[in-house]
Amino acid sequence: MVNRIIYILVFLLISINQNILSQSNATRLFPQEKINEALNKFIASAQWSNQNKHASQSPTGFVSSPASVLFKKVFDNNEQDLMVADTIIVGAQINDTLVITGNFTHTGPILVFNNGVLIFNQATVVDTGEIYVFGNGKLFADSTLFTFPQQYIYERSLIVAQNGFVQIKNSSFNYSGMSHNLYLADSAVVEFTNIHQNDFTTCGLYGNANININGCNITGEYILTDKCQATFKNADTLILWHHFPDTAVVNYSFPPGDTVYNYVCNNSTPGISGIGYQVSADSCHNVMWALMPVNGSDVTISNSNLRLIGCWFERGDVASVSGIFNNSNYSNYTAPLADRNLHLINTNVQTWSFYVFDSSQVDIDSCQLGEVGTQQSAFVHANNLLLDGSGGYFWATDSSGILALGTTIYTMARSEKKGIFILAYGWQPFMAPTALSNSLMVCVQSTLGQDPVPYDGAVAWMQNISSPDTAIINTIVPINGSAWIDQGPSGAVMDFDNYSLYWSVMTSNWAPIVSNVIAEVHNNGLLGSWNTNGLVSGNYFLRLVMKNNLGDSLEAIKPVYLKQLVSVNELTGQSLVIYPNPAQNKISISDLPESREYTVEVFSATGIKAYTSTITNSGNNINLDVSNLRQGLYYVLIKTDNGILKKSKLVIMK
C-alpha cells in the first residue's frame, strides 16, 4: 500500500505542476534580467507620479552590476505588492534625499536606489513592507526604533545589493517576535553599531558583500559565502555558517567555548583552502559554530562543538541519506553521503539540516534533523523523518517539491512561491502548515494541531479521516474528517470539486459509502455513514478520494477495527497509557487489569503492521521491546479475547 500511496502522491505533484505552476526550464539563480524587469516596471508605471512619495522618468545604468543572489527571491515573492502598495521611492530623481523624524507609519515597500539617500533620525518607524537599498542608494539611521509587523517568519526583509550602503547606529529592531531576513549581495556594505534586536536575524552574504557589526544583543546567524567579508565585535548570540563549496578542502578545528577573541577564518587559515570569504570575531559571546558543506567538498572537522551542520545538495545532485541524528557525539565518523567527504573526529553535532538546490533529488529515510528545505526545481522524498525544529523549519520554495511520508514535524511546514509540499500520514502537533505566494500545501491523513493555512494566492489542501478507530458491527457508523481545498485571500486557480468514501478488507475491491459529494467538510465534520450490517469482526480500511477542479485526485486510507457489541468492562472508557512516549527502545503500557491475555499490535502511520504479540500480564503493566521499530509515528492496539480494543499513538525517536 505504501508504494501505491507514493505513486499517487508523485502523480499529483507532477500533474499539479503541469496544470497550474507552468514550470519553465531551470535557470541560473537570481538572474539580472529579473532585476531589470521588476525595477523597470516600478519606474515606468504611470501611477507612480501620482501615488508615490518620489517618482520620475526611468533612469539609466542603475542595474549594471552582476546578478544579485537575493533579488529574485524578494521580487518573486513581492512584485505584486510592490506594484499596488504605497511604495516610497528614493532615487528616481537626481540627488534625491528623504529625511524621516518623529513618528512614521507606512504600509508597503521602500526602494532606495541610484544616488538616493534615505535618513531616519530619532524616528519611531512602523513599516509593513520591505526595505530595498541597491544601485548606489544609501540608508542612514540613528537613534531610531524600527518595527516591522510580521504574520509569519521571514515575511519582512532588509535587502542591500549592488553598491548599496546601509549605516544604522544606536537603534532597535522589532519583527513581531519572529525571525526575519537580512540580505547582502554584490558589493553591498552594511554597518551596524550599538543595535538592540528583539528577534533573530537570518543573514545571507553573497558576492563581495561586506558587513561590520559592533555591539548587538541578538546578532543572529550569518551565512558566509563567495568573497564576502564579515566583522563582528561585542556581539552576542551569533551563529557563523562557514560555507564550504565543492572546491573546499578543510581539516580544521573550531575554537572551544562560546566566547571568542580575535577569531579569523579565511583562505589563508591553516587547514582551510578553497573558500573566498573572510570572517573575524572579537569580544563576542554565545558564539555558535556551523558549517555548510556542498557535494564535492572534502571536509574534516576535529575536536569541535558544532551547533549546526547544514549539508548543501547542488548541481543536479542525487543522494540517499539515512541514519543521521541530532545531538550526536562522533569519535571517528564519516557521514553517509556518497557525494562528498564529511569526516568528524571527536566532534559533537547538535543539529543536522539539509538544503537541496537546483534540480537535485534527495531521499531522506529514518533521520532526525533540524531543518530541511528545497529550492529551484529540487525534490525531497522524506520517509520516517523526525524534523525537530532545532535548526529551523521544513520548506519548499521556487518550483521545488517535498513529499513527506510518515514524518513527525515539531516545527513549521511551509510551501513558498510555486513550491509544492505534500505531508501524508504524518504528525505536526504544534504549528499549522502554511502556504505562501502561489504555492500548494497538501495534507493527507496527517494528524495536525491546526489546519493548514493559505496566504496570498496559495492553496491549502486538507484531506483526512479522523475517526473512527474502532466501531461496532451491525450498526451505522459515522465517519468524520475533513475534505476541503482553500485559497489564500488573493485567490487561485485550484479549488475543491468533490470527494468519495469507500471501505474494504484488504485495500482492494473498494465498496462505496458515499460518492461524488460536492460539499466541503471542515473541522472533522461528518464525511459519511457506514452501514456495517453483515460484516464480521476484524481489521478494515476506509478510503477517502478527493478531487480538485483541475482533474487531480488523491486518496487517504485509514485502518479501522470492527468489533462485536459486548458488555461494558474495566477497559471501556479508559485511556491507554504508554510511557515513555516518545520512546526509543522500550515502552510500558499501564493501567490494565491483572491476569488477562492481550494481543498487542503496532501499526505504522500508513497502516502497515510492524509488531504483534500475545501477552499475559501479571501486574498492571505490559512491557514491550520496540527497539526494532524505525523512527516515526505508530498506533498501538490492545485486543482482548472478547474483541474489546483500545488504541493510542506512539512516537519512536532514535
What does this structure look like?
The structure is a single chain. This protein has 654 residues and is mostly beta strands. Helices cover 8% and strands 51% of the residues. Among the domains are: 27-178, no CATH class; 219-357, no CATH class; 465-479 and 489-563, Sandwich (Immunoglobulin-like); 577-652, Immunoglobulin-like (Sandwich), CATH 2.60.40.1930. Helix 2 (32-44) packs parallel to helix 4. It is globular. The chain starts with a helix and ends with a strand. 46% of the residues are buried.
Give the tags:
disordered N terminus; Immunoglobulin-like; 29-stranded mixed sheet; 654 residues; globular; mainly beta; nine-stranded mixed sheet
Précis, in short:
The protein has 4 helices and 55 strands. The chain has 654 residues and is mainly beta.
Ranges where pLDDT stays below 50 over 5 or more residues in a row are: 1-84, 567-574
Gyration radius, in Å? 28 Å
* Count of individual helical segments: 4
Structural class: mainly beta
- The percent of residues in helical segments reads under 10%
- Shape field: globular
Number of β-strand runs: 55
Mean pLDDT equals 84
The biggest sheet amounts to:
29 strands, mixed
In percent terms, what proportion of residues is strand? Answer: over 45%
Terminus-to-terminus distance: 25 Å
